Amino acid sequence: MAVNVAWQGFVRRGPRLAHPDGRTGVAATLPRPLAKALFLHLNAPMSAPQFPPPTDFPEYNPEDLSGMGVFTKRPDLQGDRPPGLIDLRRYMFQLGMSGFQTFVGAPIALTPADLTAAGVEVAMIGAGLDFSYGMRGSAFGPKMVRNGEIYMPPGYGTPHQHTRVDPITELVLADYGDAPVNNLSLYASIEPIRALVREVAETGAIPFIVGGDHSLMYPNVAAIADVYGKGNVGVIHFDAHYDATDAGLGLNLTHGTPVRRLIEQGHASGHNFIQVGTRGWAPNDKDLGWMRDQGFRYHNMAQVDKFGWDWVMERSIEEAGDGTEYLYISIDMDVFDPAYAPGTGTPEPNGLTPRELFPILRRLGAEKNVVGIELVELNPFADSTYATALVANRVIREVLTGIAMRKKGITDPYYFADVAIDGGQGQDWPQR
Ligand SMILES: [Mn+2]
User: Fold this and answer.
1) Phi and psi based region of residue 83 (left: phi greater than 0; alpha: psi -120 to 50; beta: remaining)
2) FRET partner for 86 with CA separation of 20 to 30 A, picked from 110, 122, 308, 329?
3) What is the pTM of this model?
4) Domains of the chain
5) Residue 184 CB coordination number (10 Å)
6) Cα-to-centroid distance, 426 and ligand 1 (Å)
7) What is the DSSP string of 44-81?
8) CA of 256 to the centre of ligand 1 (A)
9) What is the pLDDT of residues 103-160, one digit of tens each?
């Protein structure tokens, strides 16, 4: 009865209530012994007794996933078809909203032989996985991005306005379809996703994974490390959240834990993990301590407030890939302020703007040896204004523009085409 009364009080008065002895939240509404029990329960080690194994389900065998078609490739995938890209356009000209929808209107590839035969440089992969956090919907992120392609299709002379570089014609791009996901099991999905990302990276193409929630960072980065070597790949991680906690509700892989698992298993090192844009109410002291012990370099919004975005950007670029030969870029859409990207599962106010993030994404592509990219946490069902789809599309194009600039030998920081800056009209601009 006492507990009931306490919980009713909590519901009625809300979680901001503070107990006179300093306790806040749920704990403040409970008698001290109960509050202590709750605290101990929430902080219990993961080795605490679990539910017994499901002995009432003898047909369930978590070791044998072979019968599941979601992970089995079609045996006739290549068939008699010569390897190479498949262009799905029937007509010479069609706008972005028509035809089969692919990432940036790219032709498709189904096998590694296709990628190799065409010399694909960036292969885009959808990964529709959204059950490592309570809010479902980001499984439809890849569809959102493909369908959000409203601009001109490839090959019609539409360069990035400020650099005059057209990544869609400059690079050999492919839509590699979607990663295999068992929508009833995150754990069962991890290794098959990792295998597909690895299969792309092994051809020398850059995998560009569109999610899906951020638990994907674990199989994605592990796959890149499989190919380029453990510890050889630095990660620059744009996110409102640090994603490096130890467990969520007793599970060691959620969209809040991939960073911890990657570092624990040696796929990446803390020193070469650069976080940009973090804010809000985490990490707790314990996790922050762990991050500092690992040598994390983090650039949160407090730094942006204190030192300004230009300093944070320069510093982050300098650190990205410092000491590693290769760089992986992880972009969580919630790094943007929700004003610009509301369509995400865990929005957090006071974020970065497109005007701040687009240049750094482009510069990383131009100045660094990028071997993998992910764009995650896009939720079309929370994107009532369509703004998130537009921003996501631009994120992809900015990174690709940077990679295309690098291919053309343009690596100057803050590069803009002369003609884009003053139009040759003779204005007296400041020297920068
Ligand atoms: Mn994240």
Assistant:
1) beta
2) 329
3) 0.87
4) 2-41 (no CATH), 83-407 (3.40.800.10)
5) 10
6) 46
7) --TTS--PPP-TT-TT--TT--TT-GGGPPPTTSSTTS
8) 7
9) 998 999 999 999 999 999 999 999 999 988 767 899 999 999 998 877 666 667 789 9
